[in-house]
Amino acid sequence: MRDVPAAPGLGSVGEVGIENMTSAEIGSAITGGFRTAILPLAAIEQHGRHLPLSMDADHADELAVRIARGLGNALVLPTIRVGYSPHHLNFPGTLSLRASTLEALCVDYGSHLARYGFERVVLFSGHIGNYPVMREFEARLAQQLAPLSVIVFTDSDAILELWRDCAEDIAHLGSRVGGHADIAETSVMLAVHPERVRTEQFARGYTGIVDHELLQRAFGEGIDSVSSNGILGDPAGACVDIGHACLEAVTSLIIGYARSRGA
What we know:
Layout: H1 23-31, E1 36-41, H2 55-71, E2 74-76, H3 99-110, H4 113-116, E3 120-125, H5 131-145, E4 149-152, H6 156-171, E5 177-180, H7 183-192, H8 212-221, E6 232-233, H9 240-260
Parallel strand pairs: 1-2, 1-3, 3-4
Antiparallel strand pairs: 5-6
Keywords: Hydrolase, Metal-binding, Zinc
InterPro entries: Creatininase-like_sf, Creatininase/forma_Hydrolase
Family: Belongs to the creatininase superfamily.
């Protein structure tokens, strides 16, 4: 996790990642008003030849810190790095949890938070493929974690639309957003970990319309059934400016949703 400006209860460094804090520091932060926990979900799965399998986890790590900073009263739980990715398993190295396992992990991560003094937990995902599972378990999670307030952001369509807007506004390349290893995700990685991007391996993937029917096919038959190289969209034209714009836009989206639900 990155250091953030100092805030009441966090000392001089202002760390928001609880795994990097001591128990005493966490207790002081909670006493000082940090009653929101952020739980990022992610994936370890193929992202074409040009991005590492950690793409979604690195993305979630970065967003979580930005969201915590924006809310101003939040600490970040360790990212659940492996997610629901059965549609990527035909590509070597991809890991995948069962939907029930991912749900159980979220329950276990949140089950002791109220005891420590947290009042709410905000879940989001750096991996689009987790969102159908999250929509399915949202109500059950709220019941199991009561009295903790559970806020689950699930609007993956809004994220994709923001990515298109950012790529279009900055470079007139919104059409290259397909949702996976495309210009948006590649730009995010250029902004966060540029040394991990294999720019010489850029390749276009499926560039047709990404609608519900196509996603159902990808989820049911595997992403390789619609894109032989595992890419939806085109990474060409990716740049740091688009990456920062995507990060800022999605951060604002999730913060706005969390605040509308009482965070």
